[in-house]
Specification:
3-stranded antiparallel sheet; 4-stranded antiparallel sheet; alpha+beta; about 15% helix; single chain; 3 helices
């Protein structure tokens, strides 16, 4: 192919594929009448602490020697700290359990003129000379005229300590049940709680000692007598009622 032929092909190619030239760039200047759209700096709002607007109580200074609420317990004589600690009326000997509860009581004695007066709340405590159980808590209140007495918050506590030791005897020894009459059985004696101070093994120890004294004063024809050497003390409970303390005497 000669030079003329090459030129002809080149011309044809240029005709088939026209080269589109890029347009000349146009310079655009920033407008002068446009305001800045940058957000303005806003100061943060002050942080207020969260508070509870409770009314403040006005504290009133107590007057000198102003009366204080009266108690219900005894005041020893002389009225001193030492006499208070030594007063036996403030202690409960023979207490084996106590029951504390809250009771709704009338503020005045209900009568025909005030059959259902406003109430007052009392915290009460009862002392028991024998262990207590939930089955015995059958007192739920009652009525005085139209006023309804109710009880709530009742809880009972039994002593978790064994009875005190008794002079002249070994023990006490906790047992799982009552003892069947063994050899040397001397009999039994019942002490109802309505006539005694409650569960006190010392009462049974005294009865055991008195039995020995009686037997020594009334010996057999050969001059011998039985000596009470041990006693077994239990609390007798029938259904939910506690009746008393049972003593079983044993001889040597």
């Amino acid at each position: 192919m000669g030079p003329s032929s090459v030129a002809s092909v080149d011309t044809d190619l240029r005709a088939m594929f026209q080269v589109i030239a890029a347009p000349d760039p146009v310079l655009v200047a920033a407008p002068l009448d446009v305001e800045s759209n940058t957000p303005k700096q806003v100061a943060p709002a002050p942080i207020k602490p969260i508070t509870t607007d409770l009314p403040k109580r006005s504290l009133k200074e107590r007057d000198a020697c102003s009366p204080q609420p009266s108690g219900s317990g005894p005041v020893p004589s002389p009225d001193t700290a030492d006499a208070f600690l030594a007063d036996t009326d403030l202690s409960a000997s023979g207490c084996s359990a106590f029951n504390i509860y809250i009771e709704r009581d009338p503020s005045v004695d209900p009568a025909s003129a005030c059959p259902n007066p406003p109430s007052t709340t009392n915290y009460k405590c009862t002392l028991w000379g024998a262990p207590v159980a939930a089955q015995e808590a059958t007192n739920s209140g009652g009525y005085r005229n139209d006023f309804h007495i109710v009880i709530t918050g009742s809880n009972a506590y039994n002593k978790d300590a064994p009875p005190a030791a008794i002079s002249g005897f070994f023990g006490p020894q906790e047992l799982g049940g009552s003892i069947d009459a063994p050899s040397g059985y001397l009999g039994y004696q019942f002490f109802p709680f309505s006539q005694s101070q409650g569960y006190d093994p010392a009462t049974c120890a005294s009865a055991c000692t008195q039995q020995t004294t009686y037997n020594s004063q009334h010996p057999g024809s050969d001059g011998s007598f039985q000596t009470c050497v041990s006693h077994h003390t239990t609390v007798v409970r029938i259904m939910i009622d506690v009746f008393g303390m049972l003593l079983i005497r044993n001889a040597n």
